[in-house]
Structures are given as structure tokens and as C-alpha cells.
Design goal:
Strand order of the largest sheet of chain B: 1-2
Distance between the termini of chain A: 30 Å
Number of helices of chain B: 15
Number of domains of chain A: 1
Strand content of chain B: under 5%
Structural class of chain A: alpha/beta
CATH architecture of chain A: 3-Layer(aba) Sandwich
Helix content of chain A: 25-40%
Chains: A alpha/beta (241), B mainly alpha (329), C mainly alpha (288)
Shape of chain B: globular
Distance between the termini of chain B: 36 Å
Number of strands of chain A: 10
Largest sheet of chain A: 6 strands, mixed
Radius of gyration of chain A: 17 Å
Oligomer: heterotrimer
Helix content of chain B: over 70%
Largest interface: B-C, 47 and 48 residues
Shape of chain A: globular
Radius of gyration of chain B: 21 Å
Order of helices and strands of chain B: HHHHHHEHHHHEHHHHH
Number of helices of chain A: 11
Strand order of the largest sheet of chain A: 6-7-8-3-9-10
CATH topology of chain A: Rossmann fold
Strand content of chain A: 25-35%
Structural class of chain B: mainly alpha
Chain lengths: 241, 329, 288
């Protein structure tokens, strides 16, 4: 399936970093509506920086960032969310002392999402029954896998057009990882566009349509998931893990 | 070059009381004495402040120092030369009582600042509570010694003596600051200031270092308080303890530059000059207006000159130099 | 030996005062929890609101309840003003600069009040009765203030628990960046928080003016006490603030009757210092 010429989310030559340190060099990528795309690479490649640039927590120094044709550069994070980009951050970052229900409520903070918030909550509970069971529980007391579920559910509450997932499998036991990717598949089937950043190459390639390889801040390779699975680096990575 | 300037300045300071001032001598000396004493106190505070130990309660040490010598002289005729030793001991005890548990239990940042605030207030309230012998909020006056001038009682009619005494104290403070700046302790304390756990893991005895600098700061502040009491011959819990005076000290140091030798001096000189100017300007006409403007200036300075005057100047100069330098290809 | 009835009376008075102090501590805590800044001049805002009520009631003949409402509104406006003019510019500065900025505000407000209204004490004479309960004399004003404070705290609790913006305030105090990813503009959350904090100061002002006289240095007595209560209860901890407020007020009240007013304060502050070493996170914090 070839990617259509105009992508929903597009990065062109993005260079970004923190202070003196540059984490990304001239990164270009695109995600089209309805696609699931992965960015894989080793530790320290700049994957999290990439996510933070897209969601507005970090400003790019050079390059262009557009969503549905409109530039995202220099927009503050909360406005980027309002455009329809939901970011599930690294480490989940759920609100530990709020209940599951309250966490989901916060996901619908946007004015546009607040009106239909009860419907959104119902949809999330249907998708993730485990969360429905634990509605009144303090989020901090959930297991790692349940917290990840909550973080994803929370992102869905803002009725996003695209969901960014930053290292969702991090810190989860192998059994949970499989369950997690199942979950993400379910979300995908609901029709959401997904951009996922992952270290677990093998699992994520089974989930997505296309992938990019990010190494030391640059895109080294890109292509269809099934083609990339045959590549050496995937085999090496799997053995390394 | 720097040495020559320093020598010139010192010479100027030395002869200042004898320069013609057109009848303003007494007033000028009065202001200068205050500047030197508060610069010394500011320097003492900065020994803690520069390492990240922000104290909002230095009024406790100041008040302890001033009241100890004053009361010992008034009630028992004890010469302030010995009284100051008791005062310093008292301040050291307060410093230890405050510091040891704080540092042992890692009370830092906002919590530490508020604890020091509490200690300052405790001293102020104790003074007011024990009004029978401290005079409460009305303060207490230093009993005059027999005769015009008395070295034993550290009371002199001639302001010039106090002038030289305060200069000597100020120079002593600068010397201590230099010694600390050049010592091994400084590196240890800077490491502690940056990352306590890392410092501890390298074998730096965090609590001991923090306690040492706190006690030094407390002791010096108390000495400053003693000279203040001897000069003004009147002490009052609100001018010497409590949050007001503590904040003023901090403001002067931050304005002048917390990390430099002469920062506290510059800051104290500026804030006292401002204070005096406003006081003279408004006199008794608009009570409270002088202080109001002082507060306003403080707020504006903090918002617009966060690095203090020295820091902002350096940043401005650095920017100008960067602009004139050709940018790398 | 002091008649136990006086101690009981002091204890009860302490509880009633504790209610209002809790209101103050909650306001300060709310702001600290969300913004990570201690408003050193918080009680000075209360002082300004007290003056407002005084002038409205004695100067313009307003009924006290209306003056109280005006005070709440005025407090909210003050809160927002302080945030926009002073806090916002120094939000990312070092802690010491934040202390100095709000400290400078303290000097400014105290002196400005002196300039405008002199150091005379002003009282609102309401002629509310003194009621007798089991041999103890209680001021009706203090009782009313306590009840209103409790109602306000319940209102605050409901606001934080059940409204969107209230939950957002709680969320921001737990994880500021995550809340930005929810589409919340942090500046707006700060402004709302400052308004609520200011409104509580306004309410506290109205409740205090019917019990105490106001003068420019009112903050000298209540200010440090409010900080102590906040820290004792755990900065950012709401329940802790209420508990700490009651404890400190009790000590001051009972200590004041058994010794002197100042000694009551001294004991309370010494307790605070001791508690800092025993439980640096506040009395309700779990031991690490």
C-alpha cells in the first residue's frame, strides 16, 4: 500500500535538541490518515525527542512540521492537542492520585471533547473492560500494564485524529507486552491513525504498515513493515534483546 | 591594575572621615557606618546563600547577637568584648539547633527557607514575650557608660571611631569570604549544592560541611549585630529579628550579586542609599511612602534584573561581545 | 492554678479560630500545590480585604454579608492581579527570587496601607452577642466565622473533586506537563487557581475583621503562622493543612491563656520546628 502524496502529519528536515545538545538532525517523515507507522531505533536515538517535538513540548530549531497542511511549529502544547494530536508520553504519566475515572475525565479537558465526554468514557470502557472495573481506583495503584491502558484510554478521550505512542512497552513484563500490542491493534481497528515509537522492533513491526529506523538522530531507513522485518538490523536487534 | 585600584579605594576609605564635607560629615559617616555593617552582615549571609542554603531567618542571629551584649551590659555591666563571645556562642547554638536536624533529615529548598523563617520569628517573639527584661516591642537602650568614650564598653561619642571599627569589620568579613572561596570546603559545598546525593556518594560529609558554613554565617552575623547595637545604642525586635530585616539582607545580597566578593557590599550600599534617599525625600510628610517605593523597587529589580546588578551587567557585556565577534562558519 | 473552665474555653476558641486559619492555609496550599510558589504576601492580601470590608461597612453602611461577598470578589481580583503582575514573570526563576518578589510585595502592601490609612487599628463594630455555653463564653462572631469557614472548605472540596477545572487543578499539581498534553493551557489553570486562592483570602478577611481589628502590620502576626501551618500540614496537602491549622490554633489559644500570648506563639513555632525534623513532609506524610 503506497503512501498517498499528502500526509496527515509531516516532518521535513526537523532539527531539534536541548540547549547545546542536538538530538535530531534533519528528520523527515510522514504519516497518512488511517495509517499505523512506527519509528524504531536503539536507546538514545532521539525517539522521545521526536515525540516531544510533534506534541509541542520541544521547539524545532530548523525544519517544518505540518499537520493536515497547517504548520505546528511554535504552537504551544495545549494548542497542538486541540488540533487533534494526542500524545501518550513515555512512562505513561498518568495522574497518580486521581482515580481512573478522573484521569479519563482529564483526557477530555478540551472544550470540544468535554461535551461528548460521557460517550467517550463509555467507548473507552468498552474497549478496555479492565478499566471499567477499576473506575474508582487510584491510578497510582494500578499495575504497569493497566496504567498503560489508562494512558491510552485517556488519549482517546480527546477524540484525536492521530495518536502518538512513546515507548508503550517500556517497563512491562513480556506477557504484558503482547497484551499491550493487542490493545493497540484494537485501537487501530477503531480507525485511529497511529505513530508509535518503540524499542521492541519485532513486536511493533507486526502491528504497523510502515516504519522508519532512527539512529543517532537521523533516519537511516524507511519502508513497509513486512519488508523491514526481513532486514538484518531487525534480526540483530531481536538477538540483542 | 586591579591592585592599584584596590589600594586607591582603601586609601580613600581610610581618609574619608577627614575630607571636607560641608557640614554633612556626621550624616555621611552615619550612612557609611551602616553600609559597612550591613555589607558585613550581607557577606555573612552570602556564605550560606551562594551554596544554595537560602535562609530567611538571619534576623535570629542578628537579634541574638545584639540583645545578648546589650542585656549583659545593662544588667551585669559585662564588657561587650566578652559579651560578643557569649553572643557568638548563642548564635552558634541556634545555628546548630537549626542546622543539624535540617541537614540530617535533608530539609532543603522551600522547606528549609520556611524553617529558617520560623526560627527568626521565634527569636522575635521570644524577645517580645520576655518583655520584663528585654523591653518587648519597645526595645531596649544600651546603658550609657561613664564618660564620653569607653573602649571597654565600646561606646564612643565620636562617630569616626565607629567608622573605622565598621571598616575593620567589613575588611575582616571580606577576608573570611576570600578564605572560604579559596578553600577545599568551597568545592565540597558547591558539589553539595548541585547534587547532595552524588556528593555524599563521593565521600563528602554533607551534614558536616553544611553545618560548618551555617555556624560560620551565624557567628559572623551575630558579631555584626553586636556592632550594630553598640553603634545605635538601641535594639528593637522588629528592626533586628523577624522577616522584615531578613528579607532586606537577602535583597541587598541578591541585588549586588550573591557569588562575588563585593556583591553584598555593592548591594548593601545601593539599598541603603535608596532607603536614605527615600527617607529624606518624603521625611515626615508621607509616612509609609518611602517604604512603599522601596518595596516597589525591590519587586521591579527582581523581575527585571534577576541576576542582580552584577549578573545582569555581565550578561549584557557578554551579549555585546558575542555580537561583535564573527560567528563561526 | 488556672480554672479548667478557662482552658476549655481557650480550647474551644482555638478550634473556632482554627477554622479560619485552615481556610487561609488551604488557599496558600492550593497555590503552592499548583504553582510551586509560596506567596509570602498572602496575609497582606487578607489585610487589604479586611480594610475593604471595614470601609464598606463603617463608611458606606453596607450590611456585613454584602461586604463579605465584595471581599471574596475583591480577593479573587487581587489574586489574579498578583499572579499576572508578579508571579507570572518569575515563574521559572530561582526560588530565592520568588521569595524576594513576593517579599517585596509584602513590604509594598504594608507600607502602602500605612501611607493610605495610617497605623491606626480599625474595627468593625457589629455588636454581636456573647453566648454562654456550659459556663464558657464564646463570641458569636467567632462562631459564625467558624461555620462559614467550614462551609467554604466543603465548597472548595466539592469544587476540586467534581468540576472539570477543579480536577484539572489537582492534576496540574501532580504532573504539570502531562496536563499540557491534555490540552490544558497552564496559564489559564494558574489564573483560576490564583483567583480561587485570592477569593479564599477575601473570605478569610471578611471572617477576621469581625473578630479582630485591622492595621497595616496585621500580617506580622498571622503571616508566619499561616506558612507554618501549611508546611506543618505538608505543602500541597489539603487535609494536612486543616489538621495543622487546628493544632497550631489550639496551642496558641491554650498556651496564650496559660502563659502569655507571645509564649503561645513561641511554643507553636517551636513545635513546628521540631515537627520539621520528625516529619519533614508534614504531619500526615508517610515516613520515607
Amino acid at each position: 500500500m503506497a503512501a498517498p502524496p499528502t500526509g496527515m502529519l509531516e516532518l521535513r528536515g526537523v532539527t531539534a535538541g536541548y540547549g547545546q545538545f542536538t538530538a535530531l538532525w534533519g528528520v523527515s517523515l510522514r504519516v497518512s490518515a488511517g495509517e499505523a507507522v512506527a519509528v524504531v531505533g536503539p536507546n538514545g536515538a532521539g525517539k522521545t525527542t521526536l515525540m516531544r517535538v510533534i506534541s509541542g513540548l520541544v521547539s524545532p530549531r530548523e525544519g517544518d512540521l505540518t499537520f493536515e497542511g497547517q504548520s505546528l511549529a511554535r504552537l504551544p502544547a495545549h494548542e497542538i492537542v486541540a488540533r487533534g494530536i494526542a500524545h501518550v508520553p513515555e512512562g505513561r504519566r498518568i495522574f497518580p492520585m486521581l482515580t481512573v475515572a478522573d484521569n479519563l475525565k482529564m483526557g477530555a479537558f478540551l472544550r470540544s471533547a468535554r461535551r461528548g465526554y460521557r460517550d467517550s468514557v463509555e467507548r473507552v470502557y468498552t474497549l478496555f473492560p479492565a478499566l471499567a472495573e477499576r473506575q474508582k481506583q487510584r491510578a497510582g495503584s494500578l499495575s504497569g500494564g493497566e496504567q498503560q491502558m489508562l494512558a491510552i484510554g485517556r488519549a482517546l478521550m480527546s477524540r484525536p485524529k492521530i495518536i502518538l505512542l512513546d515507548e508503550p512497552s517500556m517497563g512491562l513484563a513480556p506477557v504484558m507486552v503482547l497484551r499491550l500490542f493487542d490493545l493497540i491493534r484494537r485501537v487501530r481497528e477503531e480507525g485511529y491513525t497511529i505513530l508509535v515509537v518503540e524499542q521492541n522492533v519485532r513486536q511493533v513491526l507486526k502491528l504497523v504498515d510502515r516504519a522508519y529506523l532512527l539512529e543517532v538522530g537521523r533516519i537511516k531507513m524507511e519502508g513497509r513493515a513486512d519488508e523491514l522485518s526481513e532486514q538484518d538490523f531487525v534480526r540483530k536487534a531481536y538477538v540483542g534483546l | 591594575m586591579a591592585r592599584l585600584t584596590a589600594a586607591a579605594v582603601l586609601a580613600l576609605i581610610a581618609v574619608a572621615p577627614f575630607l571636607p564635607m560641608g557640614g554633612m560629615r556626621q550624616y555621611a559617616l552615619h550612612v557609611l557606618v551602616q553600609i559597612f555593617i550591613w555589607s558585613f552582615i550581607g557577606g555573612a549571609w552570602s556564605l550560606m546563600g551562594r551554596f544554595g542554603l537560602i535562609s530567611l531567618g538571619h534576623g535570629a542571629f542578628l537579634g541574638a547577637g545584639a540583645y545578648t551584649t546589650t542585656l549583659l551590659w545593662n544588667f551585669w555591666g559585662l564588657t561587650p568584648w566578652l559579651g560578643v563571645l557569649v553572643a557568638v556562642a548563642g548564635a552558634v547554638v541556634i545555628g546548630l539547633v537549626l542546622g543539624y536536624p535540617c541537614f540530617r533529615f535533608r530539609v532543603v529548598g522551600h522547606y528549609f527557607a520556611l524553617v529558617t523563617l520560623a526560627v527568626g520569628e521565634v527569636v522575635r517573639l521570644l524577645v517580645i514575650a520576655e518583655r520584663d527584661w528585654t523591653g518587648g516591642s519597645l526595645g531596649v537602650t544600651l546603658k550609657a557608660s561613664a564618660g564620653e568614650a569607653s573602649l571597654a564598653a565600646i561606646q564612643f561619642a565620636d562617630k569616626r571611631v565607629f567608622y573605622y571599627a565598621s571598616v575593620a569589620l567589613w575588611l575582616g568579613g571580606l577576608w573570611v569570604w576570600r578564605r572560604v572561596d579559596r578553600s577545599m570546603a568551597r568545592s565540597a559545598l558547591e558539589a553539595i549544592g548541585e547534587d547532595e546525593t552524588a556528593a555524599a556518594s563521593v565521600g563528602i560529609h554533607v551534614t558536616r560541611f553544611k553545618l560548618a558554613i551555617t555556624v560560620l554565617s551565624a557567628a559572623l552575623t551575630a558579631v555584626g549585630g553586636v556592632l550594630y547595637a553598640q553603634y545605635f545604642t538601641y535594639v528593637n525586635p522588629d528592626t533586628l529579628s523577624g522577616i522584615g530585616v531578613s528579607l532586606r539582607i537577602v535583597f541587598a545580597v541578591v541585588l549586588g550579586g550573591m557569588y562575588s566578593l563585593l556583591g553584598p557590599t555593592v548591594g548593601s550600599a545601593l539599598t541603603i542609599a535608596l532607603s536614605e534617599y527615600l527617607r529624606v525625600l518624603f521625611g515626615l510628610k508621607f509616612i509609609g511612602m518611602a517604604e512603599t517605593i522601596y518595596g516597589l523597587v525591590l519587586i521591579l529589580c527582581i523581575i527585571f534584573l534577576p541576576a542582580g546588578i552584577y549578573g545582569s551587567l555581565r550578561a549584557a557585556i557578554a551579549r555585546r561581545m558575542a555580537r561583535s565577534r564573527p560567528s563561526p562558519a | 492554678m488556672i480554672d479548667p473552665i478557662f482552658i476549655a474555653e481557650a480550647a474551644l476558641n482555638g478550634l473556632l479560630l482554627g477554622g479560619v486559619m485552615a481556610l487561609l492555609a488551604l488557599g496558600l496550599n492550593l497555590i503552592f500545590g499548583v504553582l510551586d510558589i509560596v506567596w509570602i504576601a498572602y496575609v497582606e492580601l487578607v489585610m487589604l480585604c479586611m480594610y475593604l470590608v471595614y470601609f464598606l461597612v463603617t463608611g458606606y453602611g453596607w450590611p456585613i454579608w454584602l461586604g463579605g461577598l465584595a471581599s471574596v470578589a475583591f480577593g479573587a481580583v487581587l489574586g489574579v492581579a498578583v499572579h499576572l503582575l508578579i508571579i507570572s514573570p518569575i515563574l521559572t526563576s530561582a526560588a530565592i527570587n520568588q521569595f524576594l518578589a513576593t517579599g517585596g510585595l509584602l513590604f509594598f502592601l504594608q507600607s502602602f496601607a500605612t501611607f493610605l490609612w495610617t497605623t491606626d487599628h480599625r474595627t468593625v463594630r457589629l455588636n454581636l452577642p456573647i453566648i454562654e455555653v456550659a459556663g464558657m463564653f464564646l463570641s458569636f462572631a467567632r462562631l459564625i466565622a467558624f461555620v462559614v469557614a467550614i462551609l467554604a472548605m466543603i465548597g472548595l472540596y466539592l469544587f476540586l473533586r467534581h468540576t472539570f477545572i477543579g480536577t484539572a487543578i489537582r492534576a496540574v499539581s501532580q504532573d504539570r506537563d502531562a496536563m499540557r498534553l491534555m490540552g490544558a493551557n497552564p496559564q489559564r489553570v494558574y489564573v483560576v487557581t490564583s483567583a480561587v486562592g485570592g477569593a479564599m483570602a477575601g473570605l478569610a478577611g471578611a471572617l477576621l475583621i469581625i473578630q479582630y481589628s485591622v492595621h497595616p502590620y496585621f500580617g506580622a502576626a498571622f503571616g508566619p503562622l499561616t506558612f507554618m501551618i501549611c508546611v506543618l500540614g505538608g505543602l500541597g496537602n489539603m487535609v494536612g493543612a486543616v489538621v495543622a491549622a487546628v493544632i497550631m490554633s489550639e496551642i496558641i489559644s491554650v498556651g496564650g491563656v496559660m502563659m502569655s500570648t507571645e509564649m503561645g506563639y513561641v511554643i507553636a513555632f517551636v513545635l513546628f520546628i521540631v515537627m520539621m525534623f520528625a516529619r519533614p513532609g508534614g504531619i500526615l506524610a508517610k515516613r520515607e
